[in-house]
């Protein structure tokens, strides 16, 4: 299948068995992300200590792209502070646009570079980032859906 | 009337070849176009007619006495005759051209319903409506203090007719029902609903967007008051459509848009409006589009709407059986009277992943809520994948679609 480039093995594996999946007891921050038109919904719960993410879990029903992105992201951002996460998110957005970016810094998340060819699905991979950012900023909810029919 | 008087012979392969786009490839695979409920492909007849119009006849309508103006007007107004015949309207003057169903329903909402509604009044719709047959009513309800009521459906996706009739209480000032559901294919018993409405003096609007490409429409036999259609789903150009309404309603309705084409005489003190349908058709319309729509109606007549209905119901039965063989597949909508629309989900697979991966196999289906949030809520799912078929689709395409589904399922499980 030629979509194997997007739905490659590590993406499928993260979708099948997402890391850091579930609820987080004693979380300090949380937010709900939703792309209602798509039908993606996601909740992030985090424990922040000294400005750094000590633990993070997510739950919700979403497409494989959103789940895999959330799973990879949860591993990548543990231990980082808000500034480092914002910098990494900027790299991820550049990756989706096809702009130069630091693929090494993104690690596994660089798999989503294939979304350059799937503009309609970019918002799926961006939802976990927006939800995480909302949680860190104390916002209750997030979406990456533009006004679309 | 719109039904074929003499049966027309039906050569499916030849008909399919009338659609140039169907021979293209997508992602290196032959295209399987199963998104017909979204918009239909266009036969060469329609494409050629629009092309010829711009090459040889282009002029504005109803304004110029020169030859081109008369040719353009004759072709444009000719579509009104064809459309009137296509839906068996008693008169061509009852056919108002609009840019599609959405505009047609909004015209009724603002020009017919809004002036009549007051607090305590209601508009009755069904659980299976497209947003185009919900939101305009909500907007006029907000302006007038009226409310929306919703007639329920069964899990199979059939309207519960007794409940619909019970809900036709004196507060109901208008009922609005989809003829054929774009999500689950249900064909509603419009004639029966119209009788119930009529005996209570309640006007009935029918959203015929999905009916026009699949079954014979006879607005007189249906007995409704308003019937809305959209051209692009019936193999015509986008930006075309119509509202049919009983003459008494059109005469009572004030114009919605003002401008050129819709007046008889204008002074700064007073404007005398043209008679229906022109009083609702302000401004330069989509002339080439409507000329193309005329070609689409001719084309449907040539294929034979009864041939279309028969072929599609066989294809639907075949596709339904084929889908049932896919493990973990859940079909939404199993109405006894059903058009060739199949909404489904596969356990553990999100609709968008399905659509993206099917597209890689050359199969075009829609995923999402299909502009019918309330129906998705009824089924308790955020989205479905939908395969909607037309008479140019084949069993071979159904087989390729099912093979692609199996491939996708294996990949994602
Ligand atoms: C049942 C139904 N009603 C209304 C519409 C709106 O049609 P249009 O967008 O052409 O105005 C559609 C098409 O999307 C439909 O399927």
From TrEMBL, chain A:
GO biological process, one term: iron-sulfur cluster assembly
Pfam families: NifU_N (PF01592)
CDD domains associated with the record: IscU_like
Record domain NIF system FeS cluster assembly NifU N-terminal: where: 7-124
Entry GO MF terms: iron ion binding; iron-sulfur cluster binding
Xref: PANTHER family: IRON-SULFUR CLUSTER ASSEMBLY ENZYME NIFU HOMOLOG
Name of the featured protein: SUF system NifU family Fe-S cluster assembly protein
Taxonomic source organism: Tahibacter soli
UniProtKB/TrEMBL annotation, chain B:
SUPFAM superfamilies: PLP-dependent transferases
Gene Ontology terms: biological process: cysteine metabolic process
Gene Ontology MF term list: cysteine desulfurase activity; pyridoxal phosphate binding
Catalysed reactions listed for this entry: (sulfur carrier)-H + L-cysteine = (sulfur carrier)-SH + L-alanine
InterPro entries tied to this protein: Aminotrans_V_dom, Aminotrans_V_PyrdxlP_BS, Cys_dSase_SufS, Cysteine_dSase, PyrdxlP-dep_Trfase, PyrdxlP-dep_Trfase_major, PyrdxlP-dep_Trfase_small
Superkingdom classification of source: Bacteria
Keywords: Pyridoxal phosphate, Transferase
CDD domains: SufS_like
Domain Aminotransferase class V residue range list: 32-401
Keyword Repeat carried by entry: no
Function: Catalyzes the removal of elemental sulfur and selenium atoms from L-cysteine, L-cystine, L-selenocysteine, and L-selenocystine to produce L-alanine.
Entries under PANTHER family matching the protein: CYSTEINE DESULFURASE (PTHR43586), CYSTEINE DESULFURASE 1, CHLOROPLASTIC (PTHR43586:SF8)
Family per record: Belongs to the class-V pyridoxal-phosphate-dependent aminotransferase family. Csd subfamily.
The protein's name in its UniProt record: Cysteine desulfurase
Species of provenance: Tahibacter soli
Lineage start: Bacteria, Pseudomonadati, Pseudomonadota, Gammaproteobacteria, Lysobacterales
């Amino acid at each position: 299948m030629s979509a194997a480039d997007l739905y490659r093995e590590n993406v499928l594996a993260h979708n099948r068995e997402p890391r850091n999946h579930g609820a987080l007891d004693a979380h300090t921050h949380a937010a709900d992300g939703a792309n209602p038109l798509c039908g993606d919904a996601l909740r992030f719960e985090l424990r922040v200590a000294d400005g750094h993410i000590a633990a993070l879990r997510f739950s919700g029903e979403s497409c494989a792209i959103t789940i895999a992105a959330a799973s990879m992201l949860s591993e990548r951002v543990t231990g980082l502070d808000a500034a480092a996460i914002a910098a990494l998110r900027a790299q991820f957005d550049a990756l989706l646009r096809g702009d130069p970016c630091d693929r090494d810094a993104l690690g596994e998340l660089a798999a989503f570079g294939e979304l350059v060819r799937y503009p309609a699905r970019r918002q799926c991979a961006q939802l976990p980032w927006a939800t995480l950012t909302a949680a860190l900023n104390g916002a209750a909810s997030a979406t990456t859906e533009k006004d679309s029919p | 009337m719109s039904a074929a008087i003499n049966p027309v012979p039906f050569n499916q392969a030849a008909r399919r070849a009338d659609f140039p786009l169907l021979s293209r490839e997508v992602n290196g695979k032959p295209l399987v176009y199963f998104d017909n409920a979204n918009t239909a492909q266009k036969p060469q007849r329609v494409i050629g007619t629009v092309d010829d119009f711009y090459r040889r006849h282009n002029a504005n309508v109803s304004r110029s006495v020169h030859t081109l103006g008369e040719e353009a007007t004759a072709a444009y107004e000719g579509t009104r005759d064809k459309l009137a015949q296509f839906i068996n309207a008693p008169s061509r003057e009852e056919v108002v051209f609009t840019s599609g169903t959405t505009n047609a329903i909004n015209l009724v909402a603002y020009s017919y319903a809004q002036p009549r509604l007051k607090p305590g009044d209601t508009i009755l719709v069904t659980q299976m409506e497209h947003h185009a047959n919900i939101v305009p009513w909500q907007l006029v309800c907000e302006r007038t203090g009226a409310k929306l009521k919703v007639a329920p459906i069964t899990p199979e996706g059939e309207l519960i007719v007794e409940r619909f009739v019970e809900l036709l209480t004196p507060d109901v000032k208008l009922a609005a029902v989809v003829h054929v559901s774009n999500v689950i294919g249900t064909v509603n018993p419009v004639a029966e609903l119209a009788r119930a409405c009529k005996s209570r003096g309640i006007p009935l609007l029918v959203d015929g967007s999905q009916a026009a490409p699949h079954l014979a429409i006879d607005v007189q036999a249906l007995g409704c008051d308003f019937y809305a259609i959209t051209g692009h789903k019936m193999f015509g150009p986008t930006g075309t459509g119509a509202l049919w309404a009983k003459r008494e309603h059109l005469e009572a309705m004030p114009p919605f848009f003002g401008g050129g084409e819709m007046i008889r005489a204008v002074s700064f003190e007073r404007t005398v409006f043209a008679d229906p349908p022109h009083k609702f058709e302000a401004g330069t319309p989509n002339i080439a589009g409507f000329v193309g729509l005329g070609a689409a109606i001719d084309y449907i007549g040539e294929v034979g709407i009864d041939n279309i209905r028969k072929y599609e119901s066989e294809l639907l039965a075949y596709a339904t059986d084929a889908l049932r063989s896919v493990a973990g597949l859940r079909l939404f909508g199993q109405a006894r009277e059903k058009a060739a629309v199949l909404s489904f989900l596969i356990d553990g697979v999100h609709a968008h992943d399905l659509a993206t991966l099917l597209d890689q196999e050359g199969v075009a289906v829609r995923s999402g809520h299909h502009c019918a949030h309330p129906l998705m809520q009824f089924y308790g799912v955020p989205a479905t994948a939908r395969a909607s078929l037309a008479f140019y689709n084949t069993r071979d395409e159904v087989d390729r679609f099912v093979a692609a589904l199996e491939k996708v399922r294996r990949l994602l499980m």
